[in-house]
Amino acid sequence: QLQLVESGGGLVQPGGSLKLSCGASGSTLENYIIGWFRQVPGKDREGVACIGGSDDSPYYRESVKGRFTISRDNAKKTVYLQMDSLKAEDTGVYYCAAGDGYFVPDHELGYTANEYNYWGQGTQVTVSS
After folding, report:
1. In this structure, are residues 75 and 93 in contact, taking their beta carbons and an 8 Å threshold?
2. Side by side, which strands form the sheet with 3-7?
3. Is the pLDDT of residue 85 over 90?
4. CA pair distance 36, 46, nearest whole angstrom
């Protein structure tokens, strides 16, 4: 069974950068759509980015376009989220998730997986001066 573990979170000043990693065990990630989500206490979880399909198309929520980059290294069974020009509103617990289905239209990202079957435990990102 696929298991996901996030790492790379931490405290960073506004304008700084962090690179999150989502490592897989139990299976490779090649055939999965991988999504990054974040959640702040008291608010709904929101999609941040996802990647997948035959051409590994990336999709981003509007507020992170141009600042975040999602990428995949199948040999290392890892998906990354490079986060630059971080803002206070990027603060939250970041989760990665994997779906073995297909893309569907999504109001947050444009497209996302029809279902995410596997989730990591999350990593905290705090953007503060």
Report:
1. no
2. 3-7, 18-25, 78-83, 68-73
3. yes
4. 9
